[in-house]
Amino acid sequence: MRDTVMDIENVDVWYGDKHAVLGVNMPVEEHGVTALIGASGCGKSTLLRSMNRMNDLIDGCRVEGSITFRGNDIYAEGTDVNEVRTRIGMIFQRPNPYPMSIRDNITYGPRIHGITKASELDEIVERTLRQAALWDEVKDRLKRSALGLSGGQQQRLCIARALAVNPDVILMDEPTSALDPIATAKIEDLVRDLKKDYTVVIVTHNMQQAKRISDHTGFMQLGEMMEFGETKQIFEDPHNETTSKYIQGIFG
Ligand SMILES: Nc1ncnc2c1ncn2[C@@H]1O[C@H](COP(=O)(O)OP(=O)(O)OP(=O)(O)O)[C@@H](O)[C@H]1O
């Protein structure tokens, strides 16, 4: 096991009275891809959103337990939530580019962080679009609207936009569920590449996807982490009977 970049310990999440995540423990390995799988409504997205305090935006949502990022409790008093969401970026199910040019989508975050020099911004635009495997497709139309891109290109742009503010961890909530198989394969290749420089946690409904791209997998059911381990072990030798049934497609 490499270094642990995030640690989730005894985490419970409620929406009002609804107990959505129950006593979950999970380490997140640096430069790895960690997948969260499980039937609809089992709490995968809730757990993911608690990992960069996205749940703070939902009325009545309460998180208990400890979530540390590089040893610091992200829920500790005085924590800069914007800093947490910069260091731990998020990619959503539906690509959500801003209604502005491709270039401006990428430079938006760095500008907020005080970078104004055109040459520096140009460098960030090219670097992140290359990292997101989109540069060759858009380098001649950086000033055109991002909304004119295909869904798959928009999702890669959202990944480039997340990279532009130098995150450490990238959380992805079913990033390919709105995409066709070719666009999905490109994002999967990209995720495999990204782990050289970043750490990725991905929620997926697609077990084959978890198997293809992740190093560790957590299987959740009714808010509980039923089993967590190396992806190969989870899929080839699950220790828990419920995990075994789920990956065989017996239920869920
Ligand atoms: N904003 C909310 N308010 C109240 N309950 C919620 C809210 N969001 C989710 N829930 C409930 O919390 C539980 C976990 O939902 P969550 O979306 O985390 O599951 P999931 O495993 O990601 O599901 P899916 O795969 O369908 O996205 C569900 O019972 C859901 O109905």
Fill in the keyword field for this structure:
27% strand, alpha/beta, 10 strands, Rossmann fold, 252 residues, 36% helix, binds adenosine-5'-triphosphate, 6-stranded mixed β-sheet, 4-stranded antiparallel β-sheet
Describe this structure in words.
It is a single chain. The two termini are 30 Å apart. By secondary structure, this protein is of the alpha/beta class. It has one domain: Rossmann fold, CATH 3.40.50. The mean pLDDT is 95. The chain has 10 helices and 10 strands. Helices cover 36% and strands 27% of the residues. Adenosine-5'-triphosphate binds next to strand 2 and helix 1. InterPro entries: AAA+_ATPase, ABC_transporter-like_ATP-bd, ABC_transporter-like_CS, P-loop_NTPase, PstB-like.
CATH architecture: 3-Layer(aba) Sandwich
Q: Compounds present? A: adenosine-5'-triphosphate
What would CATH call the homologous superfamily? P-loop containing nucleotide triphosphate hydrolases
The CATH topology assignment is: Rossmann fold
Count of individual helical segments: 10
Mean pLDDT figure: 95
Distance between the termini: 30 Å
Kindly give the count of domains: 1
**Helix content bin:** 25-40%
Structural class: alpha/beta
The SSE string, one letter per element, is EEEHEEHEHHHHEHEHEEHH
Protein name: Phosphate transport ATP-binding protein PstB
GO molecular function, one term: ATP binding
InterPro entries: AAA+_ATPase, ABC_transporter-like_ATP-bd, ABC_transporter-like_CS, P-loop_NTPase, PstB-like
Keywords: ATP-binding, Nucleotide-binding, Transport
